[in-house]
Every structure is written in structure tokens, then in C-alpha cells.
Amino acid sequence: MPMYRLDTIDRRILAALQRDARLSNVQLAEEVNLSPSPCLRRVRQLEAAGLIRGYHAELDRGGAGLGLTVFVGIKVERHHEAEANAFREAVVALPEVVSAHLVSGESDFLLQVVVADLADYERFLTGTLLRLPGVSDIRSNFAIQTVKEYGPLPLTRPEGEGR
Amino acid sequence: MPMYRLDTIDRRILAALQRDARLSNVQLAEEVNLSPSPCLRRVRQLEAAGLIRGYHAELDRGGAGLGLTVFVGIKVERHHEAEANAFREAVVALPEVVSAHLVSGESDFLLQVVVADLADYERFLTGTLLRLPGVSDIRSNFAIQTVKEYGPLPLTRPEGEGR
DNA sequence: TATTCATTGGCATCTTATGCCAATTTTATC
DNA sequence: GATAAAATTGGCATAAGATGCCAATGAATA
């Protein structure tokens, strides 16, 4: 984890690219008050440092035929190292699983699953999730409405800089 | 919701842009087996149709000083239309809230919150979340490990196309 | 205040984006 | 199955953007 010291311009760059990753370097440079050369150099540095992990298109789930989002809490049996890894690897490989976290609280894992509809989810639940190694309990919470999604990360201001 | 009929090439374009939104149109065209002109035209159409909602940089949360992700379940009192909206709007406006859904099950809302550390979360919880209008119960689940994140949507194949 | 190190701006060149039109393919209809 | 109409594709010319290089500017240090 090579610590990277972000200055104000870096933060502006990151904020801008979170909002619109397709900004041309010229536009970005203008937005952060730099000329294109140093701006591009900073972006490349941020990428190389791993601060920017990638650029992704955000799709309309409904439009893509994926009308149902489900948050799935999963409890697994006391995991030995090996089976824990097996479970994680299985989860990562499932295309329907958009995100997965090991969490504290009621469940051990919290997955976000995206499918076309209820019928599709039933198939996925009974045919795939329930058959994963070590699963002892599954709780499905259906997304009824999306209030906010893909919100930008709240980049903190550098120490000692007021707002 | 003007239904948009996606063909195989559209799906390839969407898959490619989910993976890497910074692909040049030339590269993208090559990847989907089209020449640049029609490729760019399709991308523009997908954008105009709302299928592509935007392009975002994915940042390293830790590197950006945001070391703690929390999934927060919130119960709200029997909502009248007005207060329900008030709650939603408040949530949308919070920078720490990266996503928020109205869900079925135990909680009414499920938020994903990103902060620097536990101290930061305590401040946010007591100073902000607990003061939101109508909140009756809050359950915080801390992300201990991220197994998968920003997974691409599982684009289905056009009907009648095997894999 | 002098010196060194880091960062910026501007320039030349190469690559990409874009609008336009003829050619090809697909779809619908007779 | 043949023909006509509509949609989509490729290629080309031009405008815009990306990139590497170098001198100039600014900041940090001694």
C-alpha cells in the first residue's frame, strides 16, 4: 500500500473522473485548472499508484433486461480456511453477483444479486446459491426502489484545508 | 422506458465498456468486430437511449483515505408520502452514502456508507443518520472484507442464442 | 540568497473522433 | 422467390485530442 499523498488538484481530478470517466484530458485539465500535459501526467500517476482502479460504464439495469436486484444475506458454517476460500471463489465467479462482502452482524456475507425477474431469482437461489459449499442460511431482501446508486466516494479534503 | 432491442454487437459493446470505459472507439470497434464509424454510432445510440447511464472511475477506497464501508439497515416509522420523500432526499444528499435502496425484509432501507474509520462512522451515525426524519431503528453491518465489487452486469444473450 | 528538485506549459507529432456518402445487407411485401 | 424500401456498414477527409520532450517557473532546502 504505497501511501499516496493527494493534493487538491488530485482530488479534483478524482472527483471529476468519478463523475464522468469519459472527459477528454483537455476538458479535465480545464476543470482542474491545469494545462493538458501535467493533467495527463497526474492521471497516469494516479492510475499507476492504484488509486484509480478502472473505468466502467454504468448501465440501466432495467433497460438491459435485469429488472430485479436482491440483497442476499448468507450465513455459512464455521469456516475452515479451505472451505471459506471455496465459498468466496464460487461467489466471485457467479455473474449474477455484482458485489459481495464479508460483514459483521446477522449474516456472514452480503451479496448484491442482479437477475431478470422473480422466476430467474428462484432458479438462481435454488439452483446455485443454496448449493454453494457451507451455506447454512439465506435471507433475501428485494430492492423495491433504488434511492441512490453509484454515488461518488466522499473525497476528504487534505488535512488543514477548510471547506 | 422505450424498449431497446439489443443485438449481439450491442451486448458486446456494453460488456466491453463495463469492463473498460476508456477504450478508444477504435479499440472498441476492433473488439466487437465493426469498423469505427458504426461502432461509435451504436455507442451514441446506447447513450441516447439511456442504456448507458454514465461512465465512472472506480477508485481505491483505502487509498483515498476511506477505509471503512458499512451496510446500514434502517427502519422508518409508518411513512406518509411527505416524510418518506423527506427521508429519501436527505439520504441522497449525504456524501457518505454511496448507495441506498428501499428493500423488503427486516429493514426498510439499506444504505452503503463509506467513511474513513470507526471514529468517523460514529460521528456520522450519531450526528447525521440518527437525526434523519422518521428513523426508528438502525442496524450497522461493517464490511470486513470485500469479496467482489463493481462486478459487471450479467448481460443476457438475445433470445434463441445458445451459449 | 543561492542551489537543487519538482511541476508546469507549450509545441510538434501521432492517434482518435466524427460527419458524410456510397455500397452492402436485411427486412418486408408482393 | 424476387423486388423494393429501410437500416447498417465502411471508408474518407477534417477537426480534436493524446503524448512525449524541453525549457521555464515555482517551491523547498541549505
Automatic annotation (TrEMBL), chains A, B:
Keyword Transcription regulation: yes
GO cellular component, one term: cytosol
PROSITE patterns xref list: HTH_ASNC_1 (PS00519), HTH_ASNC_2 (PS50956)
Domain HTH asnC-type: start-end pairs: 6-67
SMART domains: HTH_ASNC
UniProt keyword DNA-binding present: yes
GO biological process: regulation of DNA-templated transcription; response to amino acid
GO terms for MF: sequence-specific DNA binding
A Pfam family it matches: HTH_24
UniProt entry keywords in alphabetical sequence: DNA-binding, Transcription, Transcription regulation
Protein name, entry field: Lrp/AsnC family leucine-responsive transcriptional regulator
Taxonomic classification: Bacteria, Pseudomonadati, Pseudomonadota, Gammaproteobacteria, Oceanospirillales
